[in-house]
Each structure stands twice: as structure tokens, then as C-alpha cells.
Specification:
By secondary structure, the protein is mainly alpha-helical. Helix content is 49%, strand content 1%. Among the domains are: 93 residues, Ankyrin repeat-containing domain (Serine Threonine Protein Phosphatase 5, Tetratricopeptide repeat, Alpha Horseshoe); 132 residues, Ankyrin repeat-containing domain (Serine Threonine Protein Phosphatase 5, Tetratricopeptide repeat, Alpha Horseshoe), CATH 1.25.40; 99 residues, Serine Threonine Protein Phosphatase 5, Tetratricopeptide repeat (Alpha Horseshoe); 69 residues, Serine Threonine Protein Phosphatase 5, Tetratricopeptide repeat (Alpha Horseshoe). A two-stranded antiparallel ribbon has the order 1-2. The longest helix is centred in the C-terminal third of the chain and has 12 residues. The radius of gyration is 51 Å and the shape is elongated. Keywords: ANK repeat, Repeat, Signal.
Length: 1208
């Protein structure tokens, strides 16, 4: 029988030549031993078969004989030298096998033969543990009698008693308990023997252990007791037993569960009934606020649900996520429970904490049966949750096409959207539900609908690589170029995500391969940055331009190097892209790879010839980048490849300085070992020690000090390491520096000491340490500020308090006379103002501008500070050097709240400063209408004037504040009051172009012909400014066009002087005289020509202006145009008949003017017009002589050439 398993057994001279094995690796000897064939075993052993051969599981013939209790074979094999300790795959020895099988005879035999009784297998089990677990009380007794340790434990910390109780061996349990073992011993999950017996419903063992005093309240690692175990497992018999034995029925575990809750969740209706009948509280809840009913509904125990409902529990009770029993039953598709609960009146619209109803739950989970049930029961099909998702949207996202179809067939709106504007189609496409997508598209939904990020269904499907959906949507006409809010198309999405299959599909479907998003990225750039080499290769093979750049000028190679895609880098380099291309910041692929420590890419790019000295915009090279980031591996590589270790960036910092800046000790040590200079300085003379001190790298500071560097070295700002450490509040470094001998009161170029820095920056603890070590309190910087003044300026209360305590003067002043209190008030440091006042600070002390604390507080609008200072006795009518009071400052700033407060405190509204302005004048001057109104209501005079005669109304008109002008007029303001320049409100309104105010003032009786001291009228000002609209309005109100100012200029003349063509035209139409002259005899035409206004000259000529009119100097329009070199106007005037030989009072002609001024082009023009070259002025000088005398040789030659008729 044994031989039938083998093809051949050959023997030569009594020795086995070859041994065949079966599929389990068993030899003939093993099979013979396993099956109890003693004679065959003997024969095979005698023929020389190896007695220790093992099968595939590591079992020997001895182990198999032991397992099946073939005692004679066991004895024979042992007599032939079989290894008593040879173990199988789980390291179980023959004695363990005997113990597991309860073969006491063999156990005794092995012990007699010297077997190791305590040997353990891979589970930590020895013979005793296995005997207790699987064997018999006899085997246990035998092992213990032969010295086996009774307190042995397996890997899971189980004792023999626990094993026996777990597996239900009552006799073994009794024997072990009688041997005095620890009845309360626990395994690694803290289960006792009683707990294991309970779990497996070994009632006899449970009763026995309890009778022997086992703790009925023993808890395992989740604090579950035996009664909870019994309830969990539905062992009603044990539940009843434990109650009878006095178990605590309400005891809770770590989840807040008691026996009733666990019975409802995992047990049976009988166990629940038993517990309730014995007094368990029916309204109990676990930590998650679940009731017994909720637990039963969640886990699908219909009988328990029915029992609890009949016990009239709260059917609408909610857990901590606001789920009811109905919601949980729906979630898990316990249809029977759902129907039952609804029949008992459960709220079909109950919502959990995200406002999701049962129908939404059913739709989310694809429970179409329940969806239909809820609709039949009248559920609101359109009810929304907090995400504005309804049943249809959730079904599309998480459910099934059947659920979607059911909802739509029952009237759900197909165009519904969630908060993120996603439609059912978008949800389905995003989640990959092809059947749902197909159904919705066939229902003719909008295939191009977009969510709030402008993603379409196609874009979402492309993003998540749902190829089937992508193909289907494209076949249905989806826009392949649809772009989301960053203008990324489906092909870009596919490329970003490395979906090469979709990239190829999109290209095959005609996608624009070069389309760009808002970052200037196309599919290739995104593939290089986020995708894969395969995608990059696919795009390039399909014609994508390899030299494309994104908005930041990054190429595909730069993107790939930056993000660490080595395969992509290799592919692109092999495609011969520009390896030295730079982005906007000047970074090359090598620089980016270095920055992000992509070592493989760095090595590869260097091997391909990348410039190891490439610099970015700030002059930093790869080795500097490596040092900045602390990559010693790259530093070694770059130096090995020949990087220049002396290279510095634009600020003069080399790799070593950057390593100190970043704080990498290993990098610093590595660089120094490579020959870097420890005393290096940057362009502003900062040393490594300064860098380390500034950045707070204590170990590096200590390292440098140990190297003996110059700790007193200063940079160009005069700061040394100690000052830099103080500036940034690095107390450890400060301590280390002054303990090593650094000068404690060192000053920078501005005279600031470490103590001043600490006080200025609010590092009170640093200041304390400096003072404790002897820093001087009273040292001042170049502006006369000491530590307490700087602390006050920045509101560092703790520092001020410390410094005052250590002796700083409370009323110390700087060069501007400011005290700590003034600085605190100026900057609204309220708590500091309170502190200083409590310490006796002089609140009336003034700085060099005459401002004290309250004036500065008012000046800067700090009402709380003003209130505090007044409450402490500050003078409300105090004035500064310009005579301004707190009220004037508040009004000046339009701080209505502060003005109101100061007035309530009795501030004088009539106080004036040195300019003669009071509060209301300043408010009006700066356009603070509400403040003006408030001050008038509080008694300020409406006609008050400053030194320049300005009234509030004049300021309001001057500033164009119509509402304020209206208010002042309603209060009776005098429209005719004038300032010292003779201007009243309307004149200022015109001057500054405020037509609406001009209209308002005229309607209130202002005179239209009012004049200032220069006799200018409103019309003249409007014309002077070229304000055509205002001119038109004033003319419509009867303004006199011929009124003249003291220079005898009319509106027309002023408009002409300033070249306001439209205004001139308007005035001429309205009857202004074209030949009007001013005091100098100048006409509008003369002014237009003199000032180069060609268009205006044309208009005046068209109005028949006299071309030959001369001013008092004898100049006409032509002479002025020549004098000022306006060739186009000269040409225009000559064309219109101006006399080319006209002379001024000195007898000078236009040609002589051109020669005198050195205008070559003008000279040529006049000569072309046949100007007389021989004409002389009253002194006998012709044009040639005039040019000669003025040094204009070019003009001289032009005229001489004209006379001699030369050709050049």
C-alpha cells in the first residue's frame, strides 16, 4: 500500500540509491511511520533510509508516529537514534505533539528518554501549554509530575489554565485550579480564564471557576466583563448565571457599552429580554450616544428591534452623529427593520448631522429597494443635506444606475446641483460609474455642465482615469477642449496624472496638444512636472513642441528635474533639449535638481555636460544651493565633479556662508574639510559667526568660537555677532558670546548696543540677562535714544518695566526731546502709558515741537490714550509749538469721535493756532464735513477766519465738498467773504473746477462778476483753466465776456494764452472780441503763436484775426512764432499772408530772429519763402552778421550759401 505512492525505489547493496517523495514531500519511511506499519519501518531503516528526513511541513517519521500514537514505532525509531528534539515547521518537538494529542504514554516515554520538557514552538507553546489547550488532564498531570513549570505562558501570555478554559477542558481546569494556579492570570488582551470560558459558552467551566472565587467583574483591555462577553455572544444562560451571582449589570467598557448595549448589538433578543427583565436600564447609551435600539437596527437584529420597540423605547433617539435607528437600518440595507420602524411611526425625514435623510442614505448606498420604499412612503425626494446634495446626487456619486433611474422615474429633478455645483452627471463621472453616466447622458442632461471649479464630467473622468467614461462622453460630443477655472483641458488633466492611455485617446480625438492653462502650462509641461516619462514620450511622439515654456519660463526638463522624475529627465536629455535653459529666476535643471536633492538627476545631468557653475538670478551656483539646503552628499558630488569652491553669489556669500545661514553643522564641517575658508566675508563684511548668531544656530556659534574666529569682527552696519544675536533675541548665543569675552556694550554704526536691541525688539528676558551680566543702562544711540526709549517706542511693556526697575530714568529724552511717555502715547501703547503714569512719568513734558503726550495721542487719533491722560490730569488746552491744541489736531484729522469726547471735556472751540486757524477751519480745510457740522452744533463760529482770511465756506468750496458747502449755506455762511487774495467761495470753486458748487453758490446769491485782487472774474478763471463746461454754464448765467483783470486780459485772452482751443471757440461764438489786447498789446493770435498752439492759430485765422497786429515790443504773431521756433505755425502764418519782412521795434525781421536764435530748420524755411538775406536791423546787422556774432555757424553757412546760390 505504501509503495503505490512512488514510481521507483531502487536498492544497490542494501543502500538506497534514490528516494521518491509524494506531493507532500513524504518519504516511504515517513508514510510507513504515519500509518503505523512497524515492519515496513524496520525494513526501510535497515535498508538505510535517512531516519531524520522531513516532509514539506518539517515533520519527521518520529513526529508522525508520535502524532498518531504508534508507540512501537516511536520506541523503535528512538532505539535507532532518532533525534528527540527534532522539530517541524512550527518548531514543535515530539513531546509537544504527544502532549497536543493527549498521548500520556508517549509523554512519559519522551520524558524518560530525556526530552526537553520546556522547549517552546514559534507560538511560545511548550508541551504543558499544548496539553492544556488540546490534550487531556492526564497529559497535564504527567507533565507537571515530571517537573513542568505550571506558570508557563505562550507568546500571547496565556497560561495553561487560560488555554484549558478557552478550549473547554473542564477536567484540566479542575486539575490546574487544584494545583493552586493563579485563577486571575491574564493574557496579553487581559482576558482571564473566566472571560475565555464565558466567550466560548463553556458553562461548566464558568460555574466551576466562579465557585473557586474567580472575579466576576474581571475586565480585559477594553474593560469588558464576563457578563458583557456573555451578552455580546448571546449566551443568555450565562447572562442569567452572572446576574444570579451578583454581576454588575450596568458596568461599562471603554466604548461606554454595557451588557444590554452589547446584547442589542451582537447578541440576541433573548439576552436583551433577560437583561431588561433583571433591571438593566433601557435608555442606556454608549459613548457614541447609541441606544440599544440603534445598535440592534445598525447590526440587523430584527427580533431585538421589535422587542425594544414594544418596550416603548424612543424610536427617534439619535447618536452623536444624529443617526436614528431608521437611518442606521437604511445605511446597512436591513429592509425588514426599515419597514418595521416605519410601520411604528419612525420619522421618514429624520436627518443626521449633515442633514441626510433615510432616502439619501439609501441612494448613497445604492439600495434601490429602499429608495422605492421611501418614495412609496412619501419621503421628500428633493430634500438636501449640508452639501446641498439630495438623493439623486448621492445616488449618482456613490450608488448605482438603478437607484438613479428609480429616483428620476419617480420625479427627481435631473438638473439638480450640490454646493460645489456638481450635477448628477459630474458626480457619476468623477466617481467612475459608467452605467450611471450612460443612463444620464441618454436622459439628455447637459454634458457640458460645470462645477464651481469649472470642471465638466469629461474633465473629472480624465482626472481619475475612467477611460470608459471618457470614451463614452467623447462619443456623445463632449467638448474635448473644455477648460476648468485654470483653463486646463482633459489632455492636460490626463498628462498631469500620467494617464498615457487617455493622452493618446485625446490626441486621437483631435485634442489641441499645445493648449495652455493660466500658468502657461500645456500637456507636455504638466506631464514632465507631475506625470511619467511614458506620457512625455507619447506627447512628443505626437508632435508636442519640446522647447515649450510655462509662464515662469520653465521647460519640460526644468519641471522634471525640479520634481524629481529621473526617467523623464533622461528621456528629455536624450531628445537633446537645452540642458542649460533657465527659468524666470535663472534656475537651470541642475539647479532645481540640486535644490530638491534629486541626486540621481544631478549625477545624470552632470554626466551629460550640464554647467556645474550655472548661476541663478542671485548668482547662486549648485554648490551654494546644496550648502543652503544641507545636502552634504551633493556637495561631495559637486566638488568631485570640479565645482568652484570659491564662487560667491551677488551678495558675496559662498557655500560655507550659506551653510552657516541654514544651520547645517555636518555641511559646515564637510565644507571646511574641503578647504573652505572659515574667515570668509560677504559683500557687507558679514562673517560665518554673524550668520550663525543672527539665525540662532547655537552649535555653530560654539563650533566657530572653538576655532578661534574673531568674535568682535563687524559688518558694514557696525554689527558684530553679539549685536546680531541680540537683534533676534537668541539668548543662548548671547550668553555663549559674552562668556567667551565679547564686549557687552558694543555699538553699531547707529550707536545701538545689544541692550538697546533687546529692548527695541521686546526681548525682555534677553535684556534681563544682559543687565545681569553688567550691560550699561544709560548708553544712548546716535539719536539720543537709550534702551527704555526704544522699548517705549515699540510698546514693549515688559522691557520698560524691567529697565525702570533696574534704574532707567523715566523722563529720559532723546535728541528730539521725546520721553518714554510721549513715545507710548504717540503709538497708542495704552498699557505702557498706564504703567509709566503709575511710575510718575511727567505727563506735561514736551518734545522739541512743543508736543506732549496728550497732543501726540490726539494728533495720531488715539482716543483711549487721550481719555487716560485727561483722567490723570493732563491739560486739555495744552498747545504745541504751532499753537495747536488737542481739539485742533482731532478736527484736523477728522476724528469725530475724539472731537466729541474733547468737547464733552470742555475743550475750547475758539482756540487758534499760529496760522489763525481754529478747529472748525482745520476740519473744513481738510474736508471733514461731519466734524465741521459737529463743531458748529457745539458753538464754533461759522465766519471765523484764519490769517489768510479763509472761512470754513471758502475751504469747503476750495476742496469741492458740496455737502459741506450746502450745510454751511444752510447755517447762513456769507458767500461773499473773501480771503487775502480777494477770492471768495465761488472764485475758489471756479479756480478748482467744481461746477456743482459754482451752481449751488450762484443759486444762493453769489455774484457772477465778483473779482479777486487781480480783478479776475469766475469766467476768467474758468477760461484760464480751459474748463469749457464751466465756461458754458457761466455764460448761460450772463457772465461778461469782456471783463478784464489787472493785466487787461479777458477770458478769451487767458484761454488763448493756455491753448484751450475749445474754450476759445466757445467764447468767440458767444461774442468775445477776436482783436482784444492786454497791457502788453498782445492779441489772442499773438499768444497762440507765441505758445505754439497751431490749432488755435488756425481757428483765430479763420475768424479773421489780424495777422499783422503788434504788441508793445513791435512783435506780431509771425515774429513770436519764429522766436520760439514753431516752424509749423510760421509756415501756417506765411501761407495765410503774413508779411515775411515784418520788423519789430529794433528793426529785426523774422530771418534775423532765426539767425539770432540759431534755428537752422527755421532759417531754411524762411529762405525757401524768399526772405531777404540783405535786410538789416536798426544797428545795421543783417542775418549773417547776427548768426556770426551769436556763434551759430551752421545758420551762417545756410544764409551765405543761399546768397551765393550754392548747391550744398
Amino acid at each position: 500500500m505504501i509503495l503505490k505512492y512512488f514510481t521507483t525505489i531502487s536498492f544497490i547493496w542494501g543502500c538506497a540509491l534514490s528516494v521518491q517523495r509524494d506531493n507532500d514531500g513524504k518519504t516511504p519511511l515517513i508514510l510507513a511511520a504515519q500509518n503505523g506499519h512497524i515492519n515496513l519501518v524496520k525494513s526501510l531503516v535497515d535498508k538505510g533510509e535517512n531516519i531524520e528526513e522531513k516532509d514539506n511541513s518539517g515533520n519527521t517519521a518520529l513526529i508522525w508516529a508520535t502524532w498518531n500514537n504508534h508507540a512501537s514505532i516511536v520506541e523503535f525509531l528512538l532505539s535507532k537514534g532518532a533525534n528527540l528534539e527534532n522539530d517541524q515547521g512550527e518548531q514543535q518537538t515530539p513531546i509537544i505533539s504527544a502532549a497536543r494529542r493527549g498521548h500520556t504514554n508517549l509523554v512519559n516515554l519522551f520524558i524518560d528518554k530525556g526530552a526537553d520538557i520546556e522547549k517552546k514552538d514559534i507560538h511560545g507553546g511548550n508541551a504543558l501549554l499544548w496539553a492544556a489547550r488540546d490534550g487531556s488532564a492526564n497529559a497535564v498531570e504527567a507533565l507537571l509530575s515530571k517537573g513542568s513549570k505550571v506558570d508557563v505562558r505562550s507568546n500571547d501570555k496565556k497560561t495553561p489554565l487560560i488555554h484549558a478554559a478557552e478550549t473547554g477542558h473542564l477536567d484540566t481546569v479542575k486539575y490546574l485550579v487544584n494545583k493552586g494556579v493563579d485563577i486571575e492570570a491574564k493574557d496579553n488582551a487581559e482576558n482571564t480564564a473566566l472571560l475565555w470560558a464565558t466567550w466560548n459558552n463553556h458553562a461548566g467551566i464558568v460555574e466551576y471557576l466562579l465557585s473557586k472565587g474567580a472575579n466576576i467583574e474581571a475586565v480585559q483591555n477594553e474593560r469588558q466583563t464576563p457578563i458583557i462577553y456573555a451578552a455580546r455572544r448571546g449566551h443568555t444562560n450565562l447572562v442569567t448565571l452572572f446576574i444570579d451571582k451578583g454581576a454588575d449589570i450596568e458596568k461599562r467598557d471603554v466604548h461606554g457599552g454595557n451588557a444590554l448595549l452589547w446584547a442589542a448589538r451582537d447578541g440576541s433578543a433573548d439576552a436583551v429580554e433577560a437583561l431588561l427583565s433583571r433591571g438593566s436600564k433601557i435608555d442606556v447609551r454608549s459613548n457614541d450616544k447609541k441606544t440599544p435600539l440603534i445598535h440592534a437596527a445598525e447590526t440587523g437584529h430584527l427580533d431585538t428591534v421589535k422587542y425594544l420597540v414594544n418596550m416603548r423605547v424612543d424610536i427617534e433617539a439619535k447618536d452623536n452623529a444624529d443617526n436614528t435607528a431608521l437611518l442606521w437600518a437604511t445605511w446597512n440595507n436591513h429592509a425588514g427593520i426599515v419597514e418595521y420602524l416605519l410601520s411604528k411611526g419612525a420619522n421618514i425625514q429624520a436627518v443626521q448631522n449633515e442633514k441626510q435623510t433615510p432616502i439619501i442614505y439609501a441612494a448613497r448606498r445604492g439600495h434601490t429597494n429602499l429608495v422605492n420604499l421611501f418614495i412609496d412612503k412619501g419621503s421628500d425626494i428633493e430634500k438636501r443635506d449640508v452639501h446641498v446634495g439630495n438623493a439623486l446626487l448621492w445616488a449618482a456619486r456613490d450608488g448605482s444606475a438603478d437607484a438613479v433611474e428609480a429616483l428620476l422615474s419617480r420625479g427627481s429633478k435631473i438638473d439638480v446641483r450640490s454646493n460645489d455645483k456638481k450635477t448628477p452627471l459630474i458626480h457619476a463621472a468623477e466617481a467612475g460609474h459608467l452605467d450611471t453616466v450612460k443612463y444620464l447622458v441618454n436622459m439628455r442632461v447637459d454634458i457640458e455642465a460645470k462645477d464651481n471649479a469649472d470642471n465638466t464630467a469629461l474633465l473629472w473622468a480624465a482626472w481619475n482615469n475612467y477611460a470608459g467614461i471618457v470614451e463614452f462622453l467623447l462619443s456623445k460630443g463632449a467638448n474635448i477642449e473644455a477648460g476648468q477655472n485654470e483653463k486646463q483641458t482633459p489632455i492636460i488633466y490626463a498628462a498631469r496624472r500620467g494617464h498615457t492611455n487617455l493622452v493618446n485617446l485625446c490626441i486621437d480625438k483631435g485634442a489641441d496638444i499645445e493648449k495652455r492653462d493660466v500658468h502657461g502650462g500645456n500637456a507636455l509641461l504638466w506631464a514632465a512636472r507631475d506625470g511619467s516619462a511614458d506620457t512625455v514620450e507619447a506627447l512628443i511622439s505626437k508632435g508636442s513642441k519640446i522647447d515649450v515654456r510655462s509662464n515662469d519660463q520653465k521647460t519640460p526638463l526644468i519641471h522634471a528635474a525640479e520634481t524629481g522624475h529621473v526617467d523623464t529627465v533622461k528621456y528629455l536629455v536624450n531628445m537633446r533639449v537645452d540642458i542649460e535653459a533657465k527659468d524666470k529666476l535663472g534656475n537651470t535643471p541642475l539647479l532645481w535638481a540640486t535644490w530638491n536633492n534629486h541626486t540621481g538627476i544631478v549625477e545624470f545631468i552632470l554626466a551629460k555636460g550640464a554647467n556645474i557653475e550655472a548661476v541663478q538670478g542671485e548668482g547662486q551656483t549648485p554648490i551654494i544651493y546644496a550648502a543652503r539646503r544641507g545636502y552634504l552628499n551633493l556637495i561631495d558630488l559637486l566638488i568631485e565633479k570640479g565645482a568652484d569652491t570659491k564662487k560667491t553669489d551677488k551678495n558675496g556669500a559662498d557655500a560655507l556662508l550659506w551653510a552657516f545661514w541654514s544651520g547645517y553643522m555636518n555641511t559646515v564641517e564637510g565644507l571646511l574639510s574641503k578647504g573652505f575658508e572659515i574667515n570668509v566675508r560677504d559683500k557687507v563684511d558679514k562673517t560665518p559667526l554673524m550668520y550663525a548668531a543672527e539665525r540662532g544656530h547655537t552649535p555653530l556659534v560654539e563650533f566657530l568660537l572653538s576655532k578661534g574666529v574673531d568674535k568682535e569682527a563687524k559688518d558694514r552696519s557696525g554689527r558684530n555677532a553679539l549685536l546680531w544675536a541680540a537683534w533676534n533675541g537668541h539668548s543662548d548665543i548671547l550668553k555663549r558670546l559674552f562668556l567667551s569675552g565679547s564686549i557687552l556694550d558694543v555699538k553699531d554704526n547707529g550707536g545701538k548696543t545689544p541692550l538697546i536691541y533687546a529692548a527695541e525688539r521686546g526681548f525682555a528676558e534677553v535684556a534681563k540677562m544682559l543687565l545681569d551680566n553688567g550691560a550699561k543702562l544709560d548708553l544712548k544711540d546716535n539719536n539720543g535714544r537709550d534702551a527704555v526709549l526704544w522699548a517705549a517706542w515699540n510698546g514693549n511693556k515688559n522691557s520698560v518695566e524691567l529697565l525702570l526697575l533696574r534704574g532707567s530714568k523715566i523722563d529720559v529724552t532723546d535728541k528730539n526731546g521725546k520721553t518714554p511717555l510721549i513715545y507710548a502715547a504717540q503709538n497708542a501703547h495704552m498699557s505702557l502709558v498706564q504703567l509709566l503714569l503709575s511710575k510718575g512719568a511727567d505727563k506735561e513734558a514736551k518734545d522739541k515741537t512743543g508736543c506732549n503726550a496728550i497732543l501726540w495721542a490726539a494728533r495720531n487719533g488715539h482716543r483711549d490714550t487721550v481719555e487716560l491722560l485727561l483722567s490723570k490730569g493732563s491739560e486739555i488746552e495744552v498747545i504745541d509749538g504751532n499753537g495747536k491744541t488737542p481739539l485742533i489736531y482731532a478736527a484736523h484729522n477728522g476724528d469725530e469721535s475724539l472731537v466729541q469726547f474733547l468737547l464733552s471735556q470742555g475743550a475750547n472751540t475758539e482756540s487758534k493756532d499760529r496760522s489763525g486757524s481754529d478747529a472748525i477751519l482745520w476740519a473744513a480745510r481738510n474736508g471733514h464735513a461731519d466734524t465741521v457740522k459737529l463743531l458748529l452744533l457745539k458753538g464754533s463760529k461759522i465766519e471765523v477766519t484764519d490769517r489768510n482770511g479763509n472761512t470754513p465756506l471758502i475751504y469747503a468750496a476750495q476742496n469741492g465738498d458740496k455737502s459741506l458747502v450746502q450745510f454751511l449755506l444752510s447755517r447762513g455762511a456769507d458767500t461773499e467773504s473773501k480771503d487775502r487774495s480777494g477770492c471768495n467761495a465761488i472764485l475758489w470753486a471756479v479756480r478748482n473746477g467744481y461746477r456743482d458748487i459754482v451752481e449751488l453758490l450762484l443759486s444762493e446769491g453769489s455774484k457772477i462778476e465778483v473779482t479777486d485782487r487781480t480783478a479776475k472774474t469766475p469766467l476768467i478763471y474758468a477760461a484760464q483753466n480751459g474748463d469749457k463746461s464751466l465756461v458754458q454754464f457761466l455764460l448761460s448765467q450772463g457772465a461778461n465776456t469782456e471783463s478784464k483783470d489787472r493785466s487787461q486780459c479777458t477770458a478769451l485772452l487767458w484761454a488763448a494764452i493756455n491753448g484751450h482751443t475749445d474754450t476759445v471757440e466757445l467764447l468767440l461764438v458767444k461774442g468775445s472780441k477776436v482783436e482784444v489786447i492786454d497791457r502788453e498789446g498782445k492779441t489772442p493770435l499773438i499768444y497762440a503763436a507765441q505758445n505754439g498752439h497751431k490749432a488755435l492759430v488756425q481757428i483765430l485765422l479763420s475768424q479773421r484775426a489780424n495777422k499783422e497786429s503788434k504788441d508793445k515790443s513791435g512783435c506780431n504773431a509771425l515774429l513770436w512764432a519764429v522766436w520760439n521756433n514753431y516752424t509749423d505755425i510760421v509756415e501756417l502764418l506765411l501761407t495765410n499772408g503774413s508779411n515775411i519782412e515784418i520788423r519789430d521795434k529794433a528793426g529785426k525781421t523774422p530771418l534775423i530772429y532765426a539767425a539770432e536764435r540759431g534755428y537752422a530748420e527755421m532759417t531754411e524755411l524762411l529762405l525757401d519763402k524768399d526772405a531777404n538775406t540783405d535786410a538789416v536791423d536798426n544797428k545795421g546787422n543783417d542775418a549773417v552778421l547776427t548768426a556770426f556774432r551769436k556763434g551759430h555757424s551752421k545758420v551762417e553757412k545756410i544764409i551765405i550759401c543761399k546768397r551765393s546760390k550754392c548747391n550744398s
